[in-house]
Amino acid sequence: MLGGMGPSATVDLFNKIISNTPAISDQDHIHIIINNNPKIPSRINALNPGSESPLPELIKGAQMLQKAGADFIIMPCNTAHIWYQEITKSINIPFYNMINNTVDQTLIQINENNPTVLLLATHTTINTRLYQKAFQESAVTLIVPSLTEQITVNEAISKVKAGLIKTNPYLKELNKMVDDYANKGVIHILGGCSELPLLFPLLSEKINKLDPTLMLAQFAVSKGL
After folding, report:
1. In this predicted model, what pLDDT tens digit does every residue of 115-161 receive, in sequence order?
2. What is the C-alpha R_g of the chain?
3. How far apart (Å, rounded) are the C-alpha atoms in residues 211 and 190?
4. What is the pTM of this model?
5. Which residue in the list 193, 196, 216, 221 is annotated as catalytic?
6. Which one is the CATH code of 98-211: 3.90.190.10, 3.40.50.10860, 3.40.50.1820, 3.40.50.1860?
7. Is residue 77 annotated as part of the catalytic site, yes or no?
8. Catalytic residue among 77, 103, 140, 210
């Protein structure tokens, strides 16, 4: 697991792998190597002029996992998939794409025709159209928050990275936003930043929550057993 972006999201994926593994003893669980490197430069700010690229550290981390004996790599950071191709080219083991897996699993989980899904993610993930491109050949209509709403999402994410989940000061605003979309007929939200599923238990029950971290955990279990 290429992690540390941030540490709480890495722990969340690890916990979801454990809880989705059909184990009755320690020995039934999957051998997991976690490279939790919180020193990787910001993925969110990486495209800003003068900012440091996270790519060298991402490549170093992936190669470290390969040398440690990993059979495949997963990465619980949506935004870091901007550099997915470059990381993949630097290693000789499979590196499974969280974005593509989310699309595949979403299409399985959503049954209605032409569903509309609200994408909650970092502004960098949204602006680079990672999810919009991945869903473009599907029947899903992906919508994104307004610029004002995106500020709330960004701040909520940053507070999770600071360790504030139940006490996240943007929970009220985020819940109001989600409720507003639900009242307009939007049934689904997609947590396209790996910090956001940590807030899902605290968000409105009016809307269905699609959790890419859980989807990635279930995929990893299917590959690891």
Report:
1. 999 999 999 999 999 999 999 999 999 999 999 999 999 999 999 99
2. 17
3. 6
4. 0.96
5. 193
6. 3.40.50.1860
7. yes
8. 77
